[in-house]
Each structure stands twice: as C-alpha cells, then as structure tokens.
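User: My notes are a mess, but here's the protein and S-adenosylmethionine's SMILES. Can you give me a structure?
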Amino acid sequence: MTDHHSERRYTPGRSDEETERLIEQSRLFEPITRRFLKSAGIRSGMRVLDIGSGAGDVALAVAELVGPTGEVVGVDMNPDILETARERVEKAGHKNVAFHAGDIQTLDVGGDFDALVGRLVLMYLPDPVAVLKELIPRLRSGGIVMFQEIDFTITEAYKHPDTPLMGQLGDWVVEVFERSGANGNMGMELYRVFVDAGLPEPTLDAGLLIGGSADWPGYSYVANSFQSVLPLLEHYGIATAEEVDVETIPRRVRDEIVASKRPVVIPPHIGAWTRIS
Ligand SMILES: C[S@@+](CC[C@H](N)C(=O)[O-])C[C@H]1O[C@@H](n2cnc3c(N)ncnc32)[C@H](O)[C@@H]1O
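Assistant: No problem, the inputs look usable. Here's the predicted complex:
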C-alpha cells in the first residue's frame, strides 16, 4: 500500500481548514475520549503509541494521563498536520511527546509500548486487522489496546420528516465516505476487528453528541465537516458547492432544529479496549 493510495482514502482531505476542523471536533469529543482512555486503564508512567494523531488531540489527552514519567509516540501520514500537533504539544508544555510522519501500514514505530491507541483512524485503513496484528507484538505484556471510531449506521434511524436538511446532510456524508473507501461503520466493527486481530474480547462503550438549543456549539462543526468533504462531494458528483452552501449551514441547521424541536444527533463514537496477556 503506497502513501498515495492511503492519502486518497482520507476523505476530509488535507488543508488548514481540515486541521481547524479536527481541533474543533476534538473539543466536542474530548470528554468522551478521556472517558474511554481512563476506562481502558491509561495511567501515569505509561509509554503509549497513538496512531493517526492528526492535530495531536488524542496525544495531548494521553500526555496528561501518563504525566511527565510517561511517554507518547504519535504517528500520522500527513507531515503538515504533525507540525500543528508539535506546536500544540510544545504550547501545552509536554516534553515527552514525539510525532513521526509516515504510513502506519509500513512505518517502523519501534516497540515496548504499554498501550496502543487511536481515534478515527481504523476507518481509513483498508485492512485494520492486518495493521493491529502488526502492532500488537510491539506492546509489552499486559499492554492495552484502545480505539475510538465513528459509526454512521444510526444516521438513518434519526431521519425525520421535520428535519429534511439534516437528513440530506447525513445522506451526503454517508455517501462520500462510502465512495472514498473509508469505513463509516467502523464503530460497529471494532469488536470484530479486535477479535480477528487475535485480541481478547474488548469492552465497548459509546458516546453520542446531541444538541437542540439555539446556541449549541455543534452547528459550526457540522458546517466545517462539509467544508472538508466538499471537494470530494463535487468530485464524485454527489452534490455541488451551491447545493451544499457551506456558509449558511450553521444558520439553516439551527433554524430547522429550533423550528422542529428535534435535536441534531452526531453519529456516535464507539470505544473498544482490551488488555493483552
Ligand atoms: C480523522 S483524523 C483523526 C485525528 C486524531 N486521531 C483525532 O481524533 O483528532 C485521521 C488521521 O489519520 C491519519 N491517517 C489516515 N490513514 C493513515 C495511515 N495509513 N497512516 C498514518 N496516518 C493515517 C490522517 O492523516 C488523519 O490525520
């Protein structure tokens, strides 16, 4: 698998706006991620590998949990976004976080890790089981594996005649992820992926963002997500920029939600974790 192929599979693309979107997304999902990391057993002094680090949000959360006696190694195939990750880690004052640019499918990440973690990354790997099988031997005995992935399966269930705009936006997102080869159902597949990789059965949990008030902070996140996938929406002929009309999404979604009194549901993030013997 070449870098070029992997790059095509990262549906939201690479841009400064996408980096900003990832940081905004993290602010919304941080409490869920922290809950999963803590429940998984990430604690002081651990050496942790974070794959698909992006702008560094998971690495930053892990760095706080492992403290100055621990260590975090992050990997991402996009060297530009790692510059942002490094700046943020420096600003936070962590001296024990290092990032390496490369494709996790081929990069030698070293070994002796106490934990392997990642968020929204297995969904972009053509063969997540193979990647886990490759990485599990790099864990010490008793090592932890924790992944957090989104699942779009539920999007259909939340459709309602009173919220046609949210229904349309949901359909576009599901289609663009499908067409680009990313797995929008990775959350529900975590259990299978863990077991097929030879890991003990994982503990599962889910976190879901839901909002319905006029001042809910998620409206701009919905718009920014569309800004990132817009080039691919157009490329695949799913929707035009005029149809998406990114600039007005926050206002239109908020108006629809407030008028219908039906909340926005962002597809759930599912967490899975286990410990090897
Ligand atoms: C949706 S972002 C998530 C970033 C971060 N984990 C977070 O939750 O904020 C996915 C990241 O995985 C990276 N990625 C995708 N496939 C990869 C691969 N094969 N090797 C390394 N990084 C990869 C992308 O470059 C992107 O930065």
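Confidence is low (pLDDT under 50) at residues 1-8.
User: Great, I'll file this with my notes.
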